[in-house]
Write a structure and sequence with these properties.
Layout (H helix, E strand, L loop, with lengths): L1 E6 L8 H14 L3 E7 L20 H12 L3 E4 H6 L5 H6 L11 E4 L2 H9 L2 E5 L2
Parallel strand pairs: 1-2, 1-5, 2-3, 3-4
Helix pairs in contact: 1-2
């Protein structure tokens, strides 16, 4: 089965990111396909390279990055949600005259069209968070 995933909540104020990560990992380990994980609203905070949780805490961003690398999962951050929250890759930073790239490895910024495409290409679109 092909799953598309939508994550609407940040990594440390809601269980949604943990649940999404565990769902994606289990699906991939069982041989299912994950067409894309789209992070929207506060969910884009899952892709910031600037978070530094204590060593004894969950390393959600690192876990997503490692999963993307191991299984070639497309992790997409909504561009509008990122702009509202001060997150930029090199292209967005240059476009807006800012000097920082704070998108973690394995994540990329794109538009809502990617979410629509995910819904079309997947057998199921599973949403985590409000």
């Amino acid at each position: 089965m092909k799953f598309g995933i939508l994550v609407n909540e940040g990594p440390y104020q809601h269980q949604a990111s943990d649940s999404a990560y565990l769902f994606v990992k289990a699906a991939l380990e069982k041989g299912h396909e994950v067409t894309r994980v789209f992070f929207y609203h506060d969910g884009v905070y899952n892709g910031t390279s600037y978070s530094v949780p204590p060593l004894d805490d969950r390393q959600i961003t690192k876990q997503w990055s490692e999963l993307a690398k191991e299984y070639d999962v497309d992790l997409v951050l909504c561009v509008a949600a990122c702009q509202r929250r001060g997150m930029m890759d090199d292209g967005e930073a240059e476009r807006h005259g800012k000097g920082a790239n704070n998108v973690a490895e394995g994540f990329r910024i794109s538009g809502l069209g990617q979410l629509i495409e995910t819904g079309i290409q997947s057998d199921r679109l599973v949403t985590f968070g409000d």
